[in-house]
């Protein structure tokens, strides 16, 4: 009996690696500390009522952001471990299996569990405020979306300490991801972690399309929406069409592994290239899904700190929606070397070059917005200015990769790695950092320390160029990705050492950001105006942090950048439009709000249980998990008490307290 338990535990828990053992101990100590703290300070009820059951879009956004920053730490540590292994020839810091696992988890975590939730966090926090709404269209679905993401991410990350991480690459190409190439449970953790979180991502896309199209403030036309809201709409439309492809692709892979089908196995009549086509039909739109909202953030920041209207508003809208459309016609440029023929390669080369045109349009729009503007350079504007040259270089190298004959040389090399990170770090990460700094006072009611923010900014930017510029040269020298070691005679060591130094500089930058947040909380510098950046859009018209109901009276919109126009009319002594005055002077009315619900949290736990059962092929766990999901759905279907009204007296007290402070 003891031998069976010992054999099972050795299969169940990952053992034998000191790094993983250290992670297991750290996770256990962290969990103990969390449980102790919540118990000692009697915060379990507070945790349940204020966070686990909330449907408030702002609190859900905060939870997305906290989760994404934790995933940034995990994915960043993976990156540093890889850079240490590659710093010198013949390194034995990570063995080949562990390196492949880290290589795989780094990509998945950074794209799906860091960039996506950070994006969704900003969606949640700002879109209702920018369009003058009191919540999203489907608050319960919004809560369900977050918890599905969260438990999907937890299921994926469990593989690090239980069962073993996936090691077939971040897109899991067959035959490496098939049962013969990955016989353990790591690939099943990959499939079900992404599948569960993907349900939440698809639901979020649907939710925000409906919110933007149906819940705008009275008078706000589509062509008066803030540019960030336009970018969210374009990203959500892309999610709507792209994520079902991912769901189907991973389901087919699971059937191959679980039921012995042969969709992607050559010896069974399948075709692994079908998988690669399908995964990139999702994968390349996914790149634009995460970068389109960053374009919207930069547009807001440039206009605010240039004290000018965004140059070429209509062309920006057209560019965003064009990118969303064309993103579905570029996927095959990821495998020009497949052998599809000159005609196919030429088509996808042309479409890839075409998508660079609307991307370039936006850069000129930002530059012309800054031209002759009254510029100021707080931290959000620094990130925006740093993004432009970084993204231009990334775009130019992307066009180089789109030339099919040249791509035969660049393919799978570190030139591609450098380009990919140039676009995703210089575009996505810089963009979301800019958005966090820009909207932080609106969300939390206090400012972040500017000095520490600038230290973090310079370490991030210098570290980025030191890390990734050498990788272009390494790619041209013949270094391909997925190497875990190389020989002295390759001549790659000096540039790899430089690249590793740059990675650690970015790690120091992250420490500065954590220090910045902690310092700002300790020495709280409250935001007392509600409009600390002299903003242009509706979110700056209400107190900071925003009340639970956002707007005591729904605003009436008459212009693009309506809040800025209202301030300018006041400076000129001009009256507002009669409908605006009538809305502002209307008596307060009870506000209809969604009621809290723990159903989404509990249902997501059951999805986690079912997913864990599928990973280990434990039918006794899968069936109760799926039954629990069905019961939660049934309970929700017969729940009628889903909303309530905030009385006028409470609104008056909240507004008086907020306006008194502001």
Automatic annotation (TrEMBL):
Pfam families: COX1 (PF00115). InterPro entries: Cyt_c_oxase-like_su1_dom (IPR023616), Cyt_c_oxase-like_su1_sf (IPR036927), Cyt_C_Oxase_1 (IPR000883). CDD domains: Ubiquinol_Oxidase_I (cd01662). The keyword Glycoprotein does not apply. Signal peptide: none annotated. PROSITE patterns: COX1. The keyword Metal-binding applies. Residues 42-558 form the Cytochrome oxidase subunit I profile domain. It comes from the Bacteria. Keywords: Copper, Electron transport, Heme, Iron, Membrane, Metal-binding, Respiratory chain, Transmembrane, Transmembrane helix, Transport. The chain crosses the membrane at residues 20-41, 62-82, 102-123, 144-163, 189-210, 230-255, 275-298, 310-332, 344-368, 380-404, 416-440, 452-474, 494-515, 598-616, 622-639. SUPFAM superfamilies: Cytochrome c oxidase subunit I-like (SSF81442). Belongs to the heme-copper respiratory oxidase family. PANTHER family: CYTOCHROME BO(3) UBIQUINOL OXIDASE SUBUNIT 1 (PTHR10422:SF35), CYTOCHROME C OXIDASE SUBUNIT 1 (PTHR10422). This is Cbb3-type cytochrome c oxidase subunit I. It comes from Paenibacillus chungangensis.
